[in-house]
Specification:
CATH architecture of one domain: Orthogonal Bundle
Helix content: 25-40%
Bound molecules: heme C
Structural class: mainly alpha
Distance between the termini: 95 Å
Shape: elongated
CATH topology of one domain: Cytochrome Bc1 Complex, Chain D, domain 2
Length: 218
């Protein structure tokens, strides 16, 4: 009893703490990843996920957003509203991922094609102008002929942004006077192309004099 009284409160606390120390927590029964186990008939310790398991963020409940298809046909609407921000994002992603082959104008004469890769069709044909939006999404997702798929590099929302931008590109190359909103100014001289078409400098640029004119022409 006397010895016990001599213990400082700190020492007493230490004894209590050490009493809880056992190796069990360190040596838990477990399998190394993919190790063999005869507990299960298939001898695999790693168990397959329960049927119907969905990884976080991969529910894909709205299947149109991830396939561009309704049943087995491409649909013709965007799964979210197209804002200026969406178009700008699509523009940026298109220039990064698609323009090397399709050119920034979409005429199919990008730099890689000029170096010998198979030339894609221009987007500015009757057939592709009439192609539904979901078709472009599907081509990007799964590839098309010589063109690889981009699903692993471009997430679905960005693929849709590119779809919206391609449609804008198509409209921009197929506009008529009746598309100009009433009261808008039309530049008197047509835009001039600088450089080699398809060299990456294929977007029309206004002459410096017109730019100085200050009218917003887009
Ligand atoms: C490496 C070059 C390359 C890149 C990069 C590329 N494409 Fe293509 N694309 C092609 C070729 C080549 C074809 C024609 C394939 C064929 O007919 O075999 C094609 C065809 C297409 C078509 C037309 C399909 C049809 O019905 O004729 C679309 C639409 C298209 N690409 C969209 C895209 C989009 C969007 C991107 C960017 C995400 C992209 N491509 C990136 C090479 C490319």
């Amino acid at each position: 009893m006397r010895a016990f009284q001599k213990l400082s409160p700190l020492g007493f606390a230490c004894i209590l703490l050490l009493a809880g120390c056992r190796q069990d927590m360190h040596d838990q029964p477990r399998f190394k990843p993919l190790a063999k186990s005869d507990f299960y008939p298939d001898l695999r310790s790693a168990r397959p996920p329960v049927e119907g398991t969905v990884a976080r963020g991969q529910l894909q409940e709205d299947s149109y957003s991830y396939s561009g298809k309704i049943g087995s046909n491409p649909g013709d609407y965007m799964p979210f509203p197209v804002t200026e921000e969406v178009l700008e994002r699509g523009h940026e992603r298109f220039d990064i991922y698609c323009s090397p082959c399709h050119s920034r104008l979409g005429d199919g004469r990008g730099m890689i094609v000029q170096r010998g890769f198979r030339a894609p069709p221009s987007y500015h044909t009757e057939r592709l102008r009439n192609a539904p939006l979901g078709y472009f999404f599907d081509v990007m997702t799964h590839g098309f002929g010589a063109m690889p798929g981009y699903a692993s590099q471009i997430p679905p929302r960005d693929r849709w942004a590119i779809v919206a931008y391609i449609r804008a590109l198509q409209l921009s190359q197929h506009a008529t006077l009746s598309d100009v909103p009433a009261g808008e100014n039309i530049p008197s001289a047509p835009p001039v192309f600088r450089g080699d078409p398809g060299s990456g400098a294929t977007l029309p640029e206004l002459m410096p004099a017109e730019r100085a004119g200050g009218e917003e022409t887009r």
